[in-house]
């Protein structure tokens, strides 16, 4: 009984496509991150900062994101008829032969599903001994004119999905139908589930859908030789849907290159969708065996480009081939005639190709290492005379991409997007120098062009009767020579515009102590591949950087305000300009309000100088302070009046009393909102007053209209922003819970949404109110802009009586936004923090407020532990919590050196209590001047800081934390050339080895990294060809006489020179020694220079016959290793040797070895035999096997999960399934414990890289060591209290971080019922089924039944579905909770437990 929840969503981009999605004139980018679909638009922003050159850049702006209950395999744009938005539709392909056709719904401003198509029905017959559907690669391709789409699935099956075109209705009306079975089918609905077959959709049904009846046929019906298809794609310039397919009669193999050289063939087939027939047009034989991709080319080139690992081959419509070799291995792998460009030394494995210039037909090639090249064609009339590949130099922007691409999508004419699974994705713009465009042609070139034109005219006259010829387009057919193509390629310049941050893939993680607070931990991970790899520090809460602390001035403070004022006397002469630094600070101590002048140049106590002798009213309570009229007036909101002062000398300018107009009764101010030149005051009788400043600076109340005077108001705000840039509006929350908007200055109501109290998914003015149903008690609203300085978007923030936050984003389909204004609910993962330590009195909570924080426009959620609602341009709004406690007030501070920072008013650290029993000292307060961490990312709602290691950046593979030294030990690698045996020693080459392009192997290095300064202290290079497979810091017994235990660094390595050489291994033990600090390093940082007095020293090195695949700490200061096909327990001796004391014959290579701290239990996993579970005893030393899992489980990672007296084991396999096993020797099915009971299986959808056992902070745990997969050797582990609740943290290749939480019986039943209710109530993107996505069938489980099947099955609760309950309205949510037997408070408690509340120490 467990629950799986994602703490961080996937961030590695797997697929991308650009299309007009929102409307016919837009250009949007759709990105898929494994199982998360995001829709972006491109926005141009201008840099207007002083001192910098004015420039403009393109940025990606997120429109919406939608989790998908499926793993996406491909994307394609469809020009469908009669879409809701008028733009294109999107065709999404999933695993196991599934297609979804979606479009954009402008009425609800979200994704809408048109249809879903399944092709894994029983009528699809697979070969008895062939690969299964899940083991076969799926290929999706779409006709350029969107006449049909083709999905290759299984081994040899091809599904054709035709789409309706203009004029199809006339053709169908003129015929009675060719299939009688199809005429009897019922009419269709907007959403249809289609199955593979010939009689799925009727002709009448097709009229109401953008697609027609699909059909499935084996590829061998097209041509019996298509037994091993490699790739296929639809081609341009054909009147009928025509595709080219690359195939072979036998399976291509690089190991059998001599016997299977040039076995591929390229065939072109045209489809007759009405008759469901095909015709073979051309066939090109004896193509290189390493071709793997077909790229269709539009005009002016045409044909198809075949991409191989060593060459590029172009095939035109007549079958004529032109090829170019890009490395020296092309001539060895194929006998095809090619142009020699082997000096490029390019590797085309995993490259992506996109269209660069539509006029010339040039293509962009992004290679596997991130480098770029331009492919140009020498076009002569209708023929391609040759290909030219030119690398893009670093000076021209060729280094803009650092990692391997996964997709290339041209967005605009000069902007394209490069997605990557190995690091950050990039938005890149390109330009072309004008010199190449105006280059004068030679006389020979003009003669070649004239000859080409004559040849073109002759070919057109001969091809007039050709069925597959296209209309002549002589204007688009240009001729160019190879020299011109080379010059054009060299003239391209690329520039990085924006990045899409990614945490994928996560290679390895560890937990370390935070240097700001020893009680808190931080998650450190090695992320990315190659040059894009980084060492990432991930925190659940952001640790503010405290720049300065002031205690003397604020020791009695209750509230503080800071502001920037302008000394100009006349408000009429002041123009809007750049905000200046804060110059005044007001401090209320409970009785008086003091004024301080801020001296930015001072860093001591003279920074704040008290000002006296003004007309400012010091006595009495001050509720709020603000500046208005561009800083020329200062407003003081007191309990029952508003005082206005001039900013120059704080002379009193005006007093506005708060009283009832009819009874003259004194009213108290509850809240005030400001927006030049207006001020909104909310009073305790639920009335509001709106004031406007005139040219002289005096504030005068506006005449209230009937809607404002007749109603009672709970909250309100003034808004001026991106929704209405040139005007100010008033937003009010009515007593009945409705939203009201008024124009200024006439106060005429233009918008009223009475259903806000129900918190519907879509809020609109004309919605009907429900007569019954639960209503949410709303207390506050705020309409403000959230985003960055470049991109801001309006959001409506609504707070309930239970402190829940709901976000709405306004949108309008027309330019007159006031007439058709709607709000859509935006998902926000936020659970209120209830902390009574900072509350004083029974007054209302501090209101939400707009906050300028660094480069962000945010919303402050005040409290004892404040939070901010932030938004990056590429993410949805997220709640970022600060790691600060007992905060009384959070204020913005704009000071030199800490621009757009913030101040925290907190109690000073209390002195030690007196032992004489005297009266305790009253706690004083201090003001901490803080900023957010520099270069940190907050797009996930967590604080992520990345840093590179090495120059150039090296790939971070392993990381561990040494608590005694406060250091991180990081293992990195970089690619070096693989040299034949003997070449490294004598410097010569082997016999016959004259290659200049060598294979690449990793060269590893150990780095000692400071946890405080993040500086590299020392580096230790590993031997050549030695791969670090495991790195741990563990307690080792360093003496057999004294039995002293100390922490040591243990490194397991493997060496494999070739398949004909045996694998070797080595077990190395390192120690961190103290040496003399280097005086030349860090001359300006004494603390960093002092840390240079540490060095890695090799203590022991034991070479083994088999590879060391994994190391783990075992009781008694011993080292557990997976050595070859054995499990070996080793001990360190005084002489530096590391001898084995116990072993177990595992008969396979171990991939995971874990030990449960505080016990002798261990588990070992491999990729063939599954999981082994056993115990270890020290007297005598012995490894004992207690139980095993079922066989044929390809284990990637495994971890213990003890809970409530039971021992569970979590196993993640290569099929991305999470298995829960239990050791229960008392169960008869376990055969006395020798068989691990298989309790449940859950499909993750992410390829896991690690599993880590973490203690939970939800229950008292006592003193604990750093949970780094081992106990601290310098602490007495026998005195450590073990927690009663654990979590398992899972990381993945996609950058997602998940959490598995064990549940008791009552919690499991509630959440399981809630998941069942939500699965049927919520709308799921692309029409997918989340229960079917998470379920694992018997076939995937290896054909073996588990103890979880049948009646009483206990599956894992999908926390991602449970968290979506906030998408429902309040009435529907209460109804669903009632069916599940839950209430609001119980839901919050359960969501906190499964949503990461137990790992709040991160």
TrEMBL record:
GO terms for cellular component: nucleus. Pfam families: Beta-prop_RSE1_1st, Beta-prop_RSE1_2nd, CPSF_A. It comes from the Eukaryota. Residues 1004-1365 form the RSE1/DDB1/CPSF1 C-terminal domain. One of its GO terms (molecular function) is nucleic acid binding. Residues 171-206, 899-923 are annotated as: Disordered. InterPro entries: Beta-prop_RSE1/DDB1/CPSF1_1st, Beta-prop_RSE1/DDB1/CPSF1_2nd, RSE1/DDB1/CFT1, RSE1/DDB1/CPSF1_C, WD40/YVTN_repeat-like_dom_sf, WD40_repeat_dom_sf. Keywords: Nucleus. This is mRNA cleavage and polyadenylation factor subunit. It comes from Extremus antarcticus. The lineage of its organism: Eukaryota, Fungi, Dikarya, Ascomycota, Pezizomycotina.
């Amino acid at each position: 009984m467990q629950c799986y929840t994602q703490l961080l969503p996937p961030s590695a981009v797997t697929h991308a496509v650009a299309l007009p999605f929102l409307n016919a004139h837009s250009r949007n980018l759709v990105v898929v991150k494994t199982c998360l679909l995001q829709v972006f638009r491109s926005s141009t922003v201008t840099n207007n900062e002083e001192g910098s050159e004015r420039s403009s850049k393109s940025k990606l702006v997120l429109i919406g994101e939608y989790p998908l209950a499926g793993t996406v395999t491909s994307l394609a744009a469809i020009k469908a008829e009669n879409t809701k938005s008028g733009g294109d539709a999107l065709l999404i392909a999933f695993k196991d032969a599934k297609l979804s056709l979606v479009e954009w719904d402008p009425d609800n401003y979200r994704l809408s599903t048109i249809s879903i198509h399944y092709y894994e029905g029983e009528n699809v017959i697979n070969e008895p001994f062939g690969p299964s559907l899940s083991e076969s690669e799926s290929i999706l391709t779409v006709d350029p004119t969107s006449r049909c789409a083709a999905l290759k699935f299984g081994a040899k099956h091809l599904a054709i999905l035709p789409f309706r075109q203009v004029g199809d209705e006339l053709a169908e009306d003129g015929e009675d139908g060719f299939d009688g079975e199809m005429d009897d089918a019922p009419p269709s609905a907007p959403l249809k589930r289609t199955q593979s077959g010939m009689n799925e959709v009727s002709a009448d049904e097709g009229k109401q859908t953008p697609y027609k009846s699909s059909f499935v046929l084996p590829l061998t019906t097209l041509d019996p030789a298509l037994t091993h298809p490699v790739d296929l794609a639809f081609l341009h310039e054909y009147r009928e849907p025509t595709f080219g397919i690359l195939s072979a009669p036998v399976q291509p193999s690089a190991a059998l290159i001599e016997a299977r050289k040039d076995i591929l063939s390229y065939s072109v087939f045209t489809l007759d969708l009405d008759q469901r027939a095909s015709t073979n047009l051309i066939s090109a034989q004896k193509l290189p065996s390493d071709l793997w991709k077909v790229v269709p080319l539009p005009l002016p080139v045409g044909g198809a480009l075949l991409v191989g690992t060593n060459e590029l081959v172009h095939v035109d419509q007549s079958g004529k081939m032109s090829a170019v070799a890009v490395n020296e291995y092309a001539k060895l792998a194929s006998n095809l005639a090619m142009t020699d460009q082997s000096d490029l030394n390019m590797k085309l494995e995993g490259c992506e190709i996109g269209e660069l210039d539509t006029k010339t037909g040039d293509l962009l090639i992004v290679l596997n290492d991130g480098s770029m090249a331009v492919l140009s064609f020498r076009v002569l009339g209708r023929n391609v005379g040759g290909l030219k590949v030119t690398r893009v130099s670093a000076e021209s922007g060729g280094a803009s991409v650092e990692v391997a691409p996964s997709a290339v999508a041209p967005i605009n004419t000069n902007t394209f997007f490069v997605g990557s699974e190995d690091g950050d994705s990039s938005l890149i713009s390109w330009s072309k120098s004008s010199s190449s465009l105006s280059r004068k042609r030679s006389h020979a070139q003009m003669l070649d062009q004239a000859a080409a034109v004559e040849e073109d005219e002759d070919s057109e006259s001969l091809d007039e009767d050709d069925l597959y010829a296209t209309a002549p387009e002589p204007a688009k057919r240009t001729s160019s020579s190879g020299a011109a193509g080379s010059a054009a390629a060299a003239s391209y310049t690329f520039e990085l515009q924006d990045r899409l941050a990614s945490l994928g893939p996560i290679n390895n993680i560890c937990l370390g102590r935070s240097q700001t607070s020893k009680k808190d931990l931080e998650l450190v991970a090695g992320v990315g591949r190659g040059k894009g790899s980084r060492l990432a520090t991930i925190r659940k809460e952001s640790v503010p950087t405290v720049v300065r602390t002031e205690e003397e001035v604020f020791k009695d403070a209750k509230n503080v305000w800071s502001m920037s004022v302008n000394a100009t006397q006349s408000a009429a002469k002041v123009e809007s300009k750049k905000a200046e630094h804060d110059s005044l600070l007001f401090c209320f101590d409970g009785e008086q309000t003091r004024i301080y002048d801020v001296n930015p140049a001072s860093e001591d106590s003279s920074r704040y100088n008290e000002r006296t002798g003004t007309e400012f009213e010091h006595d009495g309570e001050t509720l709020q302070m603000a500046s208005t009229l561009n800083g020329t007036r200062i407003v003081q909101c007191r309990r029952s009046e508003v005082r206005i002062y001039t900013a120059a000398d704080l002379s009193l300018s005006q007093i506005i009393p708060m009283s009832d107009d009819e009874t003259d009764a004194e009213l108290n101010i509850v809240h005030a909102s400001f927006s030049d030149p207006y001020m909104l005051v909310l009073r305790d009788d639920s009335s509001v007053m709106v004031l406007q400043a005139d040219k002289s600076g005096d504030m005068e109340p506006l005449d209230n209209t009937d809607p404002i005077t007749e109603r009672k108001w709970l909250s309100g705000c003034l808004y001026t922003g991106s929704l209405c840039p040139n005007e100010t509006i008033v937003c009010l929350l009515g007593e009945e819970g409705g939203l009201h908007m008024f124009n200024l200055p006439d106060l005429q109501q233009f918008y009223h949404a009475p259903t806000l109290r129900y918190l519907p998914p879509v809020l609109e003015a004309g919605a009907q109110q429900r007569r019954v149903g639960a209503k949410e008690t709303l207390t506050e609203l705020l309409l403000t802009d959230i985003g960055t300085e470049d991109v801001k978007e309006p959001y409506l923030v609504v707070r309930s009586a239970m402190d829940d936050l709901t976000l709405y984003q306004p949108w309008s389909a027309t330019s007159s936004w006031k007439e058709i204004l709607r709000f859509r609910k935006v998902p926000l993962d936020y659970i209120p923090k209830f902390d009574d330590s900072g509350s004083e009195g029974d007054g209302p909570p501090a209101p939400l407020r707009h906050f300028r924080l660094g480069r962000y426009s945010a919303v402050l959620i005040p409290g004892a532990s404040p939070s901010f609602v932030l938004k990056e341009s590429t993410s949805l709004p997220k709640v970022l919590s600060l790691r600060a406690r007992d905060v009384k007030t959070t204020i913005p501070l704009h000071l030199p050196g800490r621009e757009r920072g913030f101040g925290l008013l907190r109690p000073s650290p209390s002195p030690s209590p007196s032992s004489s029993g005297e009266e305790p000292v009253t706690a004083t307060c201090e003001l901490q001047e803080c900023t957010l961490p520099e270069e940190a990312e907050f797009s996930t709602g967590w604080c992520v800081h990345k840093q590179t290691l090495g120059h150039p950046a090296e790939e971070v593979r392993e990381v561990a934390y040494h608590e005694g030294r406060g250091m991180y030990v990081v293992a990195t690698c970089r690619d070096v050339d693989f040299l034949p045996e003997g070449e490294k020693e004598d410097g010569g080459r082997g016999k016959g080895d004259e290659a200049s392009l060598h294979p690449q192997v990793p060269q590893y290095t150990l780095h000692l990294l400071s946890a405080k300064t993040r500086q590299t202290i020392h580096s230790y290079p590993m031997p050549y060809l030695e791969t670090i497979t495991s790195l741990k810091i563990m307690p080792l017994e360093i003496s057999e006489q004294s039995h002293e235990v100390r922490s040591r660094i243990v490194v397991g390595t493997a060496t494999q020179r070739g398949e004909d050489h045996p694998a070797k291994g080595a077990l190395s033990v390192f120690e961190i020694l103290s040496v003399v600090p280097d005086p030349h390093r860090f001359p300006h940082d004494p603390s960093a220079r002092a840390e240079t007095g540490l060095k890695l020293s090799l203590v022991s090195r034991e070479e083994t016959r088999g590879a060391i695949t994994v190391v783990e700490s075992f009781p008694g200061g011993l080292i557990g290793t997976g050595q070859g096909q054995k499990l070996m327990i080793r001990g360190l001796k005084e002489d530096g040797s590391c001898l084995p004391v116990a072993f177990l014959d595992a008969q396979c290579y171990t991939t995971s070895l874990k030990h449960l701290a505080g016990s002798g239990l261990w588990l070992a996993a491999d990729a063939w035999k599954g999981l082994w579970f056993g115990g270890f005893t020290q007297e005598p030393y012995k490894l004992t096997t207690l139980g095993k899992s079922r066989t044929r489980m390809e284990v990637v990672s495994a971890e213990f999960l003890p809970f409530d007296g039971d021992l569970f084991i979590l196993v993640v396999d290569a099929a991305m399934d999470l298995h829960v096993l239990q050791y229960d020797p008392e169960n008869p099915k376990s055969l006395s414990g020798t068989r691990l009971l298989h309790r449940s299986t859950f499909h993750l959808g992410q390829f896991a890289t690690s599993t880590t056992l973490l203690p939970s902070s939800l229950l008292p745990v006592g003193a604990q060591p750093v949970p780094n997969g081992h106990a601290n050797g310098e602490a007495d582990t026998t005195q450590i209290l073990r927690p009663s609740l654990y979590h398992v943290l899972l990381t993945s290749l996609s950058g997602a971080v998940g959490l598995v939480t064990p549940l008791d019986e009552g919690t499991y039943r509630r959440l399981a019922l809630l998941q069942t209710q939500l699965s049927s109530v919520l709308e799921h993107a692309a029409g997918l089924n989340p229960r079917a996505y998470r379920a694992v069938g018997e076939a995937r489980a290896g054909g073996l039944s588990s103890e979880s099947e049948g009646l009483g099955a206990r599956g894992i609760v999908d926390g991602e579905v449970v968290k979506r309950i906030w998408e429902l309205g309040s009435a529907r949510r209460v109804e669903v909770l009632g069916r599940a037997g839950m209430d609001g408070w119980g839901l919050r408690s359960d969501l906190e437990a499964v949503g990461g509340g137990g790992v709040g120490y991160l």
